[in-house]
Amino acid sequence: MKKFLMILAVAGIASTGFAQTKLSLEEYLGQVREKGLDYRGSQASAEGLEKQSHQQDLIYAPTLIASYGHMDDQSQQILPFNGNRTQADAVTLGLSNKLPFGPSISVGYSFNNITLSNSPFLTSPYYTVAPTASLSLPLFKDFGGIQTQAGVHKVQYQLEAAQKGAAFQRGQSLFNAKLAYWKLALVRSELNIRQDTLERSQKIWEWTKRRVARNLADPPDALQAEAAVRVAELDLQMAKERERTARFQFNRFRAVEKEDVPEQLGTLEESLGSLKAEVPSAPPDRLDLKAVEDQAKSQKAAYDEASQNIYPDITAFASWTGNGLDKNNQFSAANDTAFQGLYPTYKFGAQFNLPLDVFTAARVSEGYKQNYEGAQMTYEDKQISVNQEWKDLAGHLQDVDKRLGMAAQIEEIQKNKANQEKTRLELGRTTQFQLLSFENDYALARLNRLSLILEKLSTLAQAQWWLTTEKQ
What is the rounded CA–CA span in Å between residue 307 and residue 143? Predict the structure, then answer.
């Protein structure tokens, strides 16, 4: 007896070890976030594009310039003042910056150490030092930095639109993963129902064949029962095919290539009980709508940039250079002289550039304007579309609730009808085939209710997805 109980215990432990692991929806979505290529690709694109959207800020970033050069000039000279060889070491440091409101400024510092060979008049080596400061200011085209800012915004809005599109795609990937989870749960429930229907149909067929053999029923009754079996087999086969397709889709979102899904999934009723989504009357500011808006802004910036090409370019400039020279190879003396401002060089003036083919420039600008107007209309159309989609989704949620309530009532009626038919069969007041028909009606009612639960889950998940995007 003890040995028998031990065998039972070992068998129980073994069966527990081989039981299916239950995989909840949140655990599955965690696998999708961690391993899913579609989700991770959208996530990487969204993060990368967000960082790229700041690249145009580099236009206004200060730039450091540093250079060193050595010259050895041994060319023949017409005049002997410089001797027959000149060697020089030159160092230059500079800092330049384009300001957002238009001007460009730069400061710099340079020095040269020059050595002359065989010069009859000049002593060497000696130093020259020159600190500089300059300013340029556009007075017509790009006045106030309009054109430069437009170029910056054009690229920035393009990248921001792409980033929001990728973020919207990332949310859509999770939404599709939820649907894949629920569809697999639905088709697995359908498999169980179809298998149960087939088993009952086979029992009725066997029972009918025995009655026909005893001349208690006509041969068409057996044919009708056999037809019911064949239909049940076909329904089961089609359910198996849908289940296989659902498994592939389920695994794809978590980057698993194999066909098998060994885990046990939660029921649709469990998901419906846990999924909550408030549906406000106003539509959310969805990321795909924001992306279209940024595209329109980018086209507006492109038009602003192109329209500046019609105007003449008038740029005022001014610069100051301090000059220091020491013939005794004393760097400090040359440096002090340069910064004392005793021998400065001033430059100021203006430069005028006028594109002669103004007609082409105007035509190009008009093209950009039309692109902007088209993008603006696309954005307004998208706003209308989003509003309509939101109203339709809210209405659809109410409708599916009504249909789900009706389906639940029908399922309960079909269940009661089948149960009462069982009682009638026990009393000999009906047939097995009639009971089978009633039980099939009940099975179809169960499937219909489960399908409506999936439809409601899909609608709630879509509302949840759209409401979440405005916060990203």
Answer: 13
Cβ atoms of residues 465 and 175 within 8 Å: yes
The β-bridge relationship of strands 126-138 and 264-265 is unpaired
**Can you list the pairs that 24-32 forms with residues at least 24 positions away whose Cβ atoms lie under 8 Å?**
24/266, 25/178, 25/181, 25/266, 25/271, 25/274, 28/177, 28/181, 28/254, 28/265, 29/174, 29/177, 29/178, 31/254, 32/173, 32/174, 32/177, 32/253, 32/254
- Residues 322 and 343: their CA atoms lie apart, in Å, by 6
Say how far apart CA 73 and CA 412 lie, in whole Å: 104
Q: Is the pTM of this model over 0.85?
A: no
Residue 315 contacts residue 351 (beta carbons within 8 Å): yes
So what's the pLDDT on residue 77?
74
pLDDT tens readout for residues 45-61: 999 988 888 887 888 88
Q: State how far the Cα of 428 lies from the Cα of 288, in Å rounded to an integer.
A: 65
Those residues whose C-beta lies under 8 Å from the C-beta of residue 126, and which sit 6 or more positions away, are: 113, 114, 325, 326, 327, 328, 329, 334
Contact (Cβ atoms closer than 8 angstroms) between residue 74 and residue 67: no
Q: Which of 136, 72, 129 is nearest to 102 (CA)?
A: 136
Residues 240, 198: contact at Cβ < 8 Å? no
pLDDT digits (tens, 9 = 90+) for 375-434: 999 999 999 999 999 999 989 989 999 999 999 999 999 999 988 988 887 777 877 778
18's tokens: 């081989």
Cβ burial 164-187 (10 Å sphere, 16+ → b, else e): bbbbbbbbbbbbbbbbbbbbbbbb
Distance set, CA 346 to CA 318, 351, 409 (Å): 8, 16, 94
Alpha-carbon span 288 to 128, nearest angstrom: 61
pLDDT of 182 strictly over 60: yes
The structure tokens listed for 385 are 């579309």
Q: Does residue 91 contact residue 110 with C-beta atoms inside 8 Å?
A: yes
Contact by Cβ (8 Å): 146, 329: no
| Closest among 172, 186, 183 to 32, alpha carbons compared | 172
Q: Which tokens belong to 262?
A: 């060994």
Residues 417 and 140: their CA atoms lie apart, in Å, by: 87
